[in-house]
């Protein structure tokens, strides 16, 4: 009997359309000549030019990328240490509490995290004079606190899967613990480290709520600029910016995929 | 290894020679995991060139003992010497010992060559020498054409060889093998058993292996230590363990065995008389002094029993019953004979005639006999 496939396929098509048509429209309208976002006025790269002249957006983008990079790197390092402690550390004292506190930021409302960190930074500035004002440092610290939790979860899963006897075999063959870590553990959890880094990078790049709390007057991240400019009416420059980000992200994903595929062969 | 051909007739094996110095000495080793005693006051001597097996069921502590030798774990109490050096506090990466893991633990991100070379790199061996040693190992285990493959492109048997090559590459004085054949299928396992023994004889390294497979231990080992609940129950050659088990546990763990409970009620020359249930009287060769009334267990191997009346000798023990089950295995048949409401005796007979002319059928009344020297008297 021939099964009727079209209801299933149309459902699938609808699902994809719901997800991706808006994104596609966003890219199409970034090439719109008209000033109005919703009315097509012919093809033009005008808004890309405008965007490159808009120092406010470019500065914010640069700041966001710097924060995201530092955040992703530190969160991955801290996350891998925490994951090592949880997976390899045995049943140390306070393990349960450690685990709970580590994963709490995953479920904590961002508003609460943001507000509490703001209060902390203000109190510290009064108490010990550091951090001196709010900006790059405070946003980065705030981002690390929650992206580290995600990084830990990702790395921990990989580490738990890894056969413990691989490390023991390396030890047995005369490799010192540091060499074992660098030559065996690290290469084997590298995919997880990469995912954790990318995840932390993304989380930081599009965080609006926490950054709004702990940012200073001189430091505005990209999501904050986008959000505030949208409130004044959407400029096609934002479309152009979004398209560029989309381009970079897709390239990064494709390159990562190719690298992984080559490693496997 | 003292090969049979170059040993003088009548010469002592190392473990029988009181002047021989043990190569590995385990002294009063206890390992606690929380409240659990994985090893309880274990002492053991292993001599140069031995193929020594630690045999026991799961959770008996055999793997823990192997890990202690490798230095992957340390004892709660007790000391371990290897080649006269106290290695108890020496970490795994400084011990002259290598281990082959049950899972093989081949590094998945390195090819066969790099896996074998890994240990050599750690000793900072020069490149030319390393290449030569890797070549030697590839030849030794006939895996030269696999050198560029990754572990996930190898079959189970090939992985086993690579793991063995890797653990031998550093020319360790002592090789530890954790269930070395456990992951192979039965046919390959039998073949590899003999190969492993030949290899060990050729390179002359002391092997200590862990296995739960008694057949494997019997085939390969110079000596076997039977372990149970964190303790060593008996250490001896495969033959002695099989023929003269020192306890019910060893007797029933190695091969199958018929156990008869009874009490000592008399002695005649070198034999004792044991009264079992149902007026069963057994006569057994037993040199150890046992006082009258001592409860004992008599262990008789199924293949040491014969069918009456054909081959009954003077003074043989007899027991009767009817055949309940027959398992035909081709070369032998195993018969289950119910001798009392509580006891079934297992009897193994070689099938010397074609199957159609089987002498026993279900329900048939039979009498079995065994000689006084074929039963072992156990008090533990």
Produce the secondary structure layout.
The complex is a heterodimer of chains A (265) and B (380).
Chain A: H1 6-30, H2 46-53, H3 55-88, H4 95-107, H5 110-128, H6 136-161, H7 164-172, H8 177-205, H9 209-214, H10 222-231, H11 236-264
Chain B: E1 24-33, E2 36-46, E3 51-55, H1 62-70, E4 77-82, E5 85-86, E6 97-100, H2 112-122, H3 127-140, H4 156-168, E7 174-178, H5 186-203, E8 206-211, H6 214-220, E9 223-228, E10 231-236, H7 238-243, H8 248-253, E11 258-268, E12 271-276, E13 281-285, E14 295-300, E15 306-307, E16 317-328, E17 332-338, E18 344-350, E19 365-370, E20 375-378
Helix pairs in contact in B: 2-3, 2-4
Précis, in short:
Chain A is mostly helical and 265 residues long. Chain A has eleven helices and no strands.
At CATH level 3, the topology of chain A is MetI-like fold
Whole-angstrom Rg of chain B: 25 Å
CATH superfamily of the largest domain in chain B, by name, is P-loop containing nucleotide triphosphate hydrolases
Percent of residues in beta strands of chain A? under 5%
Class of secondary structure makeup of chain A? mainly alpha
Assembly annotation: heterodimer
């Amino acid at each position: 009997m021939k099964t009727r496939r079209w209801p299933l396929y149309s459902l699938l098509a609808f699902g994809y359309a719901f997800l991706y048509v808006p994104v596609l429209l966003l890219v199409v309208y970034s090439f719109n000549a008209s000033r109005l976002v919703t009315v097509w006025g012919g093809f033009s790269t005008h808004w890309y030019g405008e965007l490159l002249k808009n120092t406010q957006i470019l500065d914010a983008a640069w700041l966001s990328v710097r924060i995201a990079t530092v955040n992703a790197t530190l969160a991955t390092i801290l996350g891998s240490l925490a994951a090592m402690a949880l997976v390899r550390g045995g049943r140390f004292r306070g393990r349960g509490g450690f685990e709970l506190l580590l994963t709490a930021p995953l479920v904590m409302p961002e508003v609460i995290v943001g507000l509490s960190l703001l209060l902390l930074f203000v109190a510290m500035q009064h108490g010990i004079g550091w951090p001196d004002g709010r900006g790059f440092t405070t946003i980065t610290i705030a981002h690390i606190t929650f992206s580290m939790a995600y990084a830990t979860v990702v790395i921990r899963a990989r580490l738990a899967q890894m056969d413990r006897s691989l490390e023991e075999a390396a030890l047995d063959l005369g490799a010192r613990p540091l060499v074992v870590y660098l030559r065996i553990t690290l290469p084997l959890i590298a995919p997880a480290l990469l995912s954790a880094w990318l995840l932390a990078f993304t989380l930081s790049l599009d965080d609006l709520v926490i950054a709004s709390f702990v940012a200073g007057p001189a430091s505005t991240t990209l999501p904050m600029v986008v959000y505030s400019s949208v409130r004044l009416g959407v400029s096609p420059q934002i479309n152009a910016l979004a398209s560029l980000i989309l381009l970079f992200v897709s390239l990064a994903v494709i390159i990562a995929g190719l690298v992984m595929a080559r490693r496997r062969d | 290894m003292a090969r049979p051909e170059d040993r003088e007739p009548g010469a002592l094996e190392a473990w029988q020679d009181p002047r021989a110095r043990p190569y590995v000495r385990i002294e009063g080793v206890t390992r606690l995991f929380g409240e659990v005693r994985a090893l309880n006051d274990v002492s053991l001597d292993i001599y140069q060139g031995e193929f020594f097996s630690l045999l026991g069921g799961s959770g008996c502590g055999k793997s823990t003992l192997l890990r202690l030798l490798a230095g992957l774990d340390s004892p709660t109490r007790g000391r371990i010497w290897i080649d006269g050096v106290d290695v108890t506090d020496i970490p795994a990466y400084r011990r002259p010992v290598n281990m082959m893991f049950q899972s093989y633990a081949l590094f998945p991100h390195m090819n066969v060559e790099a896996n074998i070379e890994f240990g050599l790199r750690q000793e900072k061996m020069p490149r030319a020498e390393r290449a030569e040693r890797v070549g030697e190992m590839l030849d030794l285990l006939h895996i030269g054409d696999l050198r560029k493959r990754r572990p996930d492109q190898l079959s189970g048997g090939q992985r086993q060889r690579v793991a063995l090559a890797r653990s031998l590459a550093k020319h360790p004085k002592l090789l530890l093998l954790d269930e070395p054949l456990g992951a192979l299928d039965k046919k390959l396992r039998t073949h590899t058993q003999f190969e492993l023994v030949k290899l060990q004889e050729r390179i002359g390294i002391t092997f200590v292996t862990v296995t739960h497979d008694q057949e494997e231990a019997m085939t390969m080992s110079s000596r076997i230590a039977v372990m149970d609940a964190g303790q060593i129950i008996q250490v001896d050659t495969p033959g002695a363990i099989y023929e003269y088990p020192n306890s019910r546990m060893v007797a029933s763990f190695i091969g199958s065995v018929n156990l008869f409970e009874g009490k000592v009620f008399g002695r005649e020359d070198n034999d004792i008389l044991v009264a079992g249930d149902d007026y069963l009287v057994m006569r057994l060769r037993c040199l150890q002094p046992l006082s009258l009334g001592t409860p004992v267990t008599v262990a008789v191997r199924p293949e040491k029993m014969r069918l009456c009346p054909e081959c009954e000798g003077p003074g043989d023990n007899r027991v009767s019953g009817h055949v309940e089950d027959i398992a035909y295995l081709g070369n032998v048949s195993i018969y289950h004979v119910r001798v009392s409401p509580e006891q079934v005796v297992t009897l193994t007979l070689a099938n010397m005639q074609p199957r159609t002319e089987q002498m026993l059928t279900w329900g048939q009344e039979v009498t079995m006999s065994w000689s006084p020297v074929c039963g072992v008297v156990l008090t533990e």
